[in-house]
Amino acid sequence: MTDDDSSIRDPHDPQVHGATSSDAATLDADSARAGLTGANTSPGPRRNFLVEGAAIVIGGIITLVPILAGMLFFLDPLIRRNKGETAAAGGENGTPGGVIKDADGFIRTNVSVESLPEDGTPQLVTVYDDRVDAWNRFPNQPIGTVWLRKTEEGNVQAFNTVCPHLGCSIGYRNSENDFFCPCHNSTFKLGGEKQNQIPPRDMDPLEVRIKEESGDAVWLKYENFRAATHERIPV
Amino acid sequence: MSNMLTRLNDWLDHRTGHRELLHEALYERIPGGARWRYVWGSTLVFTFFVQLITGLFLWSAYSPSAQTAWESVYYIQEVMFLGKVVRGVHHFAAQAMVVLMALHLMQVIIDGAYKAPREINFWLGMVLMQIVLGLSLTGYLLPWDQKGYYATQVSTKIMGAAPVVGPSLQYLAQGGAEYGHHTLTRFFAMHAGILPAALVAFLALHIYVFRRHGITTPDPHRAPEASFWPDQVLRDAVACLGVLAVVLFFAITKGAELNAPANPSVAFEAARPEWYFLFLFRFLKFETIEHFGLAFGAIYLPGLVMTVIILMPIIAWWKGGHRFNVVFMWLLAIGTAFLTVLAIYEDNANPDHQAALHAAEREAHRVLELANGPAKIPVEGAVTLLRNDPFTQGPRIFARHCAACHRYDGHDGTGRLVLESGGGKAVAAAPTAADLGDFGSREWFHRLLTGYGELFRPLKNVEDWDYDGSEMKDWVDTHKEVLLKEENSNDLKAVIEALVAGTGQQNAEINEELAKRGQEILTEGTLTVGEMSVCSDCHPMAADDDASDGYPHLYRYGSAEWLHAFISDPGDERYYGEKNKMPAFGEQLSAHEMDLLVRWMTGDYSETNLEKPLSRRKEAEAALGAPEPAAEESEESAEE
Question: Terminal CA-to-CA distance of chain B, rounded, Å?
Fold first, then answer.
């Protein structure tokens, strides 16, 4: 500090030493005023550097801490997803009065193989599952719909009704005997193959299991897939 | 007094300097005089303040969560004092803002107000434009109705299709893998907090920089210089009044739409974006565009157009650049207008879309009826109102499970024709079972007793069904004459009354005396003139009667319990026995679905003032062919 003081007084030094006490007083006042009016008349580079640096660092910290904390908080869905912590949509097996689901996540529908039309006409089936939304668990909710149909070989095919283009719902047109999405006119064959260039891929098939012990009921693994991609990526 | 005021003013000015500020704000120089073409910016500022004010008040009644968003908007709209107007103004002022923004941008480009040294201010304006579009996008979802839900799904999916960061961005915007509570809380934070704050900040900068450079006048010598106050202020105020009048007009006469509550398991076929995004929507329907992948049409190409607009001040540095910009903007405007009109035209000409719109309107109306009822909205949310409503779900279940064979007033229950492909064209499909549109009503029984063969003509239910050899038809042919005799008209009425009474249908008011007389006729067969052989000669009639294969049990025929049992297993020995061909739905329908279907068919639901869908019997009957000569032929074609 003393070094700093002398450096401020430096330019006046010769006068201070050879002057009367009253002169010294006025000069002292002058130099004090000079200090007040700003660093440009008597700059002290080292001290300014420290002050500025400290101001910037402290100012930066007090601004960034709440912003960063807030931003990270906002990123919560991503951060927890990457840690695998988000509650997956879908429930546990055997919720009272609700969904019947096997160990591999296949959900029982109320459709049996026998009840599907022989001519391959698809049937719309609502899939029920327990659904977790943030702080709520909703038991036995309709989570989506599926087109089920019997193929010529007698197998059962299941397609998610969500359009792979942009996620509207694909309907069945019996006038054309095909699948059609009313939003952007995506069209698919009954086997799910795309018929025009609107959708990026065929309809999303879902895994099906027929279980004899449940009277040939159709069980399926309900999944949603990312829209607008060529590959099928589960979400 | 005025002296006092002046002194107060002086005192205040000494401390705040407000006179200078006011002078600065009001006495902006306008070379060439005030003009109408300068009003767009001011109308935008005005509309934004309308949004800020109405938005804050709407906030005081809005509750963002999946079970309360639609419900609180319903409450604002239907119950709260002036709620319809405040929400309506917010809704339509948002649209006005987009229109005014487009006009402002066009005016800035045409007048060259974006050229050096105003580049930065132009870019500030572009930032404001993105913020406003962000506001309308986030606001669309907040009512959490079907329209907003499905339209915003498309927006977030487009976001997800962006390269590299797309999926993460989508995940962040949604607050998870799927839409839920956090989608709403996040969209609301964006809509009511982050975006408006950003808008205020950038608007302040925009106006500050605008004032720094002053107004761009295409023709500074057309009139003597004027100042902002009062000449231009008056013009701006009149323009704002015009905007307000238009917004109020729509808010009061049309009102903001509120569709049925969002339901991820019910397809919304009428899904469309807000009208000013229709051009983009229509653009994504071009196969040649979509061929290059969604990101190309939905992100890269619009991004490229936006980049060109952003670069316009730099393009204008070169000779001819300004002309290029103006031509580009006009082409863009024409292209956008063309695609918008095309989208609207196509939707209007598309009967399926019109039907979907109509269905959406009915559902929106119905949910209001239910929510306005004494039970109000259950805590699980308004979506359960429709889920448990026979009037809404009955037609859907019918269309899904019954309409392959049956018709309901000629349609599939929801009002649509059942179609099939005939010679490359969609034609009405011939029914293969009875039309159940008025099942259990007096008309139904009248037709049954006097024209059974006609009613069941399409029947495929009974193995080896032979229209001409049917015993029931024989009965009708034998008794038709006597039943329709003038003298017996009261007897016929009485018989019908007794049968209707047996159904216990909710909306039938029964004349007890008449029904009693009918019951007598039904057991004894004695008419005023002549006789008839009674139902119980063939059909089991009493609750404890034995089953009689092939002659359906008629105890409380047409009642909820009869329907329930019959639909569950029509091949039961109490009904058609081995002759039956109708599938048993006991397994296919859940107990809840069965209950909804039966309650709908028997009219057991809370009152509605919605009309039934228009009858389309004529079309269905035409598909079946003319009754007598063509009957066989149409049966055959139906079998194919």
Answer: 98
Tokens of B473: 């038809």
What is the C-alpha separation between B145 and A169, in angstroms, rounded?
16
Residue B496's identity, in one-letter code, is I
pTM check: above 0.90: no
Question: In this structure, what token pair is assigned to residue B373?
Answer: 């009822």
Q: Which residues of B touch A229 (CB under 8 A)?
A: 161
Identify the sign of the CA torsion B163, B169, B170, B176.
positive
User: Per residue in A116-168, pLDDT tens?
Assistant: 888 888 989 989 898 888 899 888 888 889 999 999 888 999 999 999 998 88
Q: Please report the pLDDT score of residue A142 as a whole number.
A: 87
pLDDT digits (tens, 9 = 90+) for B235-257: 999 999 999 999 999 999 999 99
In this structure, which amino acid lies at residue B582? M
Determine the angle formed by the axes of helices B83-110 and B321-349, rounding to 10 degrees: 140
| pLDDT higher than threshold 80 for residue A30 | no
Here the ipTM equals 0.81
CA distance to partner chain B, nearest, from residue A46 (Å): 36
Distance from chain centroid for Cα B316: 45
How many CA atoms, within 13 angstroms, populate the side-chain half-sphere of residue B11? 6
Give A214→chain B minimum CA distance, Å: 11
Residue B516: Cβ within 10 Å count:
13
Spatial neighbors of B179 by CB under 8 A, at least 6 apart, are: B66, B149, B153, B262, B264
Q: Which of B63, B207, B202, B60 is nearest to B135 (CA)?
A: B202
* Contact indicator for B593, B540 with CB cutoff of 8 Å: no
Evaluate whether B253 touches B62 at the Cβ level (below 8 Å): no
Q: Which of B268, B294, B421 sits opposite A176 (nearest CB)?
A: B421
| Comparison of pLDDT for B18 and A9, the residue scoring more | B18
Q: What is the DSSP string of A136-194?
A: EEEEEEEEEEEEEEE-TTS-EEEEESB-TTTS-B-EEETTTTEEE-TTT--EE-TTS-B
Give the DSSP letter string of A20-55.
Answer: -HHHHHHHHHHHHHHHHH-TTTS--HHHHHHHHHHH
- Strand ranges, E, within A191-235: 208-211, 217-220
The CA distance from B385 to B244, in Å, is 37
Query: What does residue B247 show for φ and ψ, rounded to 5 degrees?
Result: -60, -45
CB-based contact A183 B588, cutoff 8 Å: no
Phi–psi pair at B419, nearest 5 degrees: -110, 155
Q: Of the candidates B193, B195, B157, which has an alpha carbon nearest to the alpha carbon of residue B174? A: B157
Other Cβ atoms closer than 10 A to B245: 10
Chain B residues inside the 8 Å CB shell of A135: 181
DSSP-assigned letters across all residues of B51-119 = HHHHHHHHHTT---STTTHHHHHHIIIIISTTHHHHHHHHHHHHHHHHHHHHHHHHHHHHTTTTSTT-H
Residues of A in contact with B294 (CB under 8 A): 165-166, 200, 227-228
Give Cα separations from B525 to A18, B445, B473, B479, B555 (angstroms): 145, 17, 18, 11, 18
